[in-house]
Amino acid sequence: MTVYVCEPDFESILCGVYDAWMSCKGHDNVRLEIGGCGQEMELFCDYVDVVRTEEKSKKVLSAVSRRLSQEVYRKIYVASLSQEPERADRIYRFLIQAFRYGPKISDMLQLPEVYEIFRICRNVYNENHLLVEFIRFSQAAGNILVSRIGPKNDVLPLLSPHFADRLPEENWIIYDENREKASVHPRGQSWFLIDGKMGGSEYGELWKECLSKRTDEAEYQELWKAFFDTIAIKERTNPTCQRNHLPLRFRPYMTEFQR
């Protein structure tokens, strides 16, 4: 067995797909893994680091666009945003079946490879949908709206277009503290992603300075907390129901739960 070890980003996974496919060793004799996800090395396996190049990723995307469909491309991209350590190999197995059956593959959920991609994508979409509702912005100095999130999946690429459409005339930043990356939207312009720690990147010190300046945000936060507590009916409190609609892992990033 030859194991191709790739980075967690979409382009590197595509390069891993290219290397595994072009090795001509047989699909049953190769496997893709994401480096640094804690998998234990197996005996009698050859581990090969995937070299990321633009040429290889473009060839895979070109083949998907010409022979398959945009729906297949969307599925493998969304699956690459998942936190599951096996996502790279799941994408590879899905593409094997996709090139065998063609564009209709998206509807063939009876195939285990297709169902796994469907399950992974559903998990990513569900978390993105929840964050659209639960995300909270705070106003920093300079009229910049800042939000901090900690999602399981890398949903920033899915989350950002929604707020770019809803808040086109606002300067806002959504910071994913789990991946130390941020989505930045200048007013009236397109959003873009910045990788790296907030305190270590070239933009980090500027953001920290903006967040440290005094604004009237604290007063509005207290008003929102008071409203949240006032409308609650203690006699009808149902913690189980609340957890079903609002999982505990989202609450540390929501204003009304900051005490």
Summarize the structure.
Helix content is 46%, strand content 15%. The chain has a 5-stranded mixed β-sheet. With 259 residues, it is of the alpha/beta class.
Structural account:
The chain is an alpha/beta fold. The chain is built from 9 helices and 8 strands. A 5-stranded mixed sheet has the order 4-5-6-7-8. Helix 3 packs across helix 5.
Oligomer: single chain
Q: What's the tally of helices?
A: 9
Q: Count the strands?
A: 8
- Radius of gyration, in angstroms, nearest whole number: 22 Å
How far the N terminus sits from the C terminus, by CA atoms, comes to 53 Å
What brief labels describe this structure?
alpha/beta, elongated, 46% helix, single chain, 259 residues
Question: Any chance you could write out the topology, listing elements then pairs?
Answer:
Blueprint: E1 2-6, H1 10-22, E2 30-34, E3 46-49, H2 54-67, H3 70-80, H4 87-101, H5 112-134, E4 138-140, E5 144-149, H6 156-166, E6 171-176, E7 181-185, E8 192-195, H7 204-212, H8 217-231, H9 239-245
Parallel strand pairs: 1-2, 1-3, 5-6
Antiparallel strand pairs: 4-5, 6-7, 7-8
Helix pairs in contact: 1-2, 3-4, 3-5, 4-5, 5-6
